[in-house]
C-alpha cells in the first residue's frame, strides 16, 4: 500500500490535507486552483486532498460560479458548515463554576445551539454525571440530520489535554479529575483542554487575523488564566502548565488567596472575589457577580468604582503579559467587558501607564471575537483545533481519540504521533507507523 511507505509520507499527507482544509476555511468559497496557489500544492494534489476531505464530509462543492471568461466554469468549494443544514458539527461542554453549558458548534466555530445546566453541587461525579445524562437529549433536540464528530470539553484552570485530565481547578475544588474518561459514556470521542487555550485556538482559526502571528489570550472569570500562541501554534509546555497567571502578585496585599499567599491576581479580580467584595460593602445583598454588573448598569457608583478598580488590576496583568510576550494582539475575555464594554478603556489606561513595549493599547488589547457566545465557542474549539490540524487522524478513528493527541512537551501544530499500540485500530486506517520525532513532521504545506 503506497500510503504506508513511512512516517514522512504520512506526516506529509496529513499536513497537506490540513493545509487544504485551512485554505478552504480561510478563503471559502474558493476554487481548487486558488487553493493550489495559496498552499503551494499542485492542482492534482489539491484534487486528491479535496476528495479525502469530502469523503470525511468536511468540505463540499457549491454551484458553479457564473463567469464571463471562456473556459470551464469554476466550481467553488467550501467547508461543510451549518448553513448546509446537514454539515457536520461538534458537540461541546463548557464547565464553569456556577453551571455547565452544552453546545453545538459548526465547522466555522459558530454556536448553533446551547443550553445551560444549573447546579448546586460541584463535585466531579455530579457535574460530569449531569452533563452525560443530558447530552443525548440535547443532541436529539438540536442535531437534526447533522452528524456530531466529537465532544469538546473546555474548563478553566490547569488542564492536561494529552491525558484528558483537569489537573487543578481551585474554585471547583477539582484535582486530577479524569474528565475524558468520565464523559466517555456520552458515546462520542472526548477532547479536553483549558478554555483559555481553546479560545486562543478559536482566535487563530476564526477570529482576529493577527492572532495567527502572535497572540496572548487572557481569560478573567471565576478562574483567571492565559494562553500564548505564536505562528498559529498554541504553547503547552511540560505537563501543559503554561498560562497559569492566577497567582501573579498583582492583587491587593490584604486579600488572601486559597493558595495560602496574599496579593494573588485571581484572588483580587475573579468574579467570585468581586462579588464577595460587593456583598461585603453592601452593594449587593448576596455575592453574585451578575447582580454587581446590574447594580453598576443602573447607576450604583460604588458598584461602578469596584468594576473600574477590577479593570485596572486586569490592565496591570495585561501590561505585564504584553511586555513578556510582545504579541501582535492580546485578546481579553471577561464577561464584564462583553456586557459592559465601557470598562475596557480602564484596561487600556493601565496598559499605557505600565507597559514598556505597547504604545497603542487600543489597537493591541481587544475583547474576544466571539461576544456572548464565547464559552460555547471555547468548548467547540477544543475539537476544531484538532480537526483543522489533523483531519485524517481525528476522523478516521472516531471512537479512538488520541491518548497523546496533545503531547505535553510538543507544540500542538504538529501532527500528533499516533498511539504506539492503539486498542482499537481505526476502521479505515491511514495511519502509518508512529512518528518518532517531531523533526520528521512538516509544519506547512508540502508540494
Ligand atoms: Zn494564590
From TrEMBL:
SUPFAM superfamilies: Actin-like ATPase domain (SSF53067), Winged helix' DNA-binding domain (SSF46785). GO terms for molecular function: kinase activity. Keywords: Kinase, Transferase. Residues 414-425 have a biased composition (Pro residues). Residues 395-413, 426-447 have a biased composition (Low complexity). Pfam families: HTH_24, ROK. Residues 395-447 are annotated as: Disordered. Belongs to the ROK (NagC/XylR) family. This is Sugar kinase. It comes from Wenjunlia tyrosinilytica.
Amino acid at each position: 500500500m503506497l500510503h504506508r511507505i513511512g512516517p514522512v509520507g504520512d506526516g506529509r499527507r496529513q499536513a497537506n490535507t490540513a493545509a487544504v482544509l485551512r485554505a478552504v476555511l480561510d478563503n471559502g468559497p474558493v476554487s481548487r486552483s486558488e487553493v493550489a496557489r495559496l498552499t503551494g500544492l499542485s492542482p492534482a494534489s489539491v484534487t486528491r486532498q479535496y476528495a479525502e476531505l469530502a469523503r470525511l464530509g468536511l468540505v463540499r462543492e457549491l454551484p458553479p460560479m457564473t463567469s464571463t471568461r471562456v473556459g470551464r466554469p469554476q466550481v467553488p468549494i467550501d467547508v461543510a458548515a451549518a448553513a448546509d443544514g446537514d454539515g457536520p458539527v461538534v458537540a461541546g461542554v463548557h464547565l464553569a463554576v456556577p453551571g455547565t453549558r452544552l453546545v453545538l458548534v459548526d465547522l466555522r466555530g459558530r454556536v448553533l445551539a446551547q443550553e445551560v445546566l444549573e447546579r448546586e453541587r460541584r463535585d466531579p461525579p455530579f457535574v460530569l454525571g449531569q452533563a452525560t445524562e443530558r447530552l443525548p437529549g440535547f443532541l436529539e433536540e438540536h442535531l437534526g440530520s447533522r452528524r456530531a464528530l466529537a465532544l469538546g470539553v473546555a474548563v478553566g484552570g490547569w488542564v492536561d489535554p494529552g491525558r484528558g485530565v483537569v489537573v487543578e481547578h481551585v474554585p471547583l475544588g477539582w484535582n486530577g479529575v479524569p474528565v475524558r474518561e468520565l464523559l466517555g459514556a456520552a458515546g462520542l470521542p472526548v477532547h479536553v483542554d483549558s478554555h483559555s487555550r481553546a479560545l486562543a485556538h478559536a482566535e487563530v482559526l476564526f477570529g482576529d487575523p493577527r492572532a495567527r502571528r502572535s497572540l496572548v489570550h487572557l481569560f478573567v472569570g471565576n478562574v483567571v488564566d492565559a494562553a500564548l500562541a505564536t505562528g498559529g501554534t498554541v504553547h503547552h509546555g511540560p505537563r501543559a502548565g503554561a498560562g497559569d497567571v492566577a497567582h501573579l502578585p498583582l492583587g491587593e496585599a490584604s486579600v488572601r488567596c486559597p493558595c495560602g499567599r496574599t496579593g494573588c491576581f485571581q484572588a483580587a479580580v475573579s468574579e467570585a472575589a468581586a462579588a464577595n467584595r460587593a456583598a461585603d460593602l453592601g452593594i449587593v445583598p448576596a455575592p453574585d457577580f451578575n447582580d454587581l454588573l446590574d447594580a453598576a448598569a443602573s447607576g450604583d457608583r460604588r458598584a461602578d468604582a469596584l468594576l473600574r478598580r477590577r479593570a485596572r488590576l486586569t490592565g496591570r496583568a495585561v501590561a505585564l503579559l504584553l511586555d513578556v510576550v510582545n504579541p501582535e494582539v492580546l485578546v481579553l475575555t471577561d464577561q464584564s467587558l462583553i456586557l459592559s464594554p465601557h470598562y475596557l478603556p480602564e484596561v487600556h489606561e493601565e496598559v499605557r501607564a505600565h507597559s514598556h513595549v505597547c504604545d497603542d493599547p487600543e489597537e493591541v488589547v481587544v475583547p474576544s471575537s466571539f461576544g456572548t457566545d464565547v464559552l460555547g465557542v471555547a468548548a467547540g474549539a477544543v475539537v476544531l483545533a484538532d480537526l483543522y490540524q489533523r483531519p485524517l487522524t481525528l476522523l478516521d478513528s472516531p471512537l479512538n481519540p488520541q491518548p497523546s493527541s496533545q503531547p505535553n512537551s510538543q507544540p500542538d501544530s504538529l501532527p500528533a504521533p499516533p498511539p504506539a499500540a492503539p486498542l482499537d485500530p481505526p476502521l479505515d486506517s491511514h495511519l502509518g507507523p508512529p512518528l518518532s520525532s517531531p523533526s520528521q513532521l512538516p509544519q506547512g504545506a508540502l508540494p
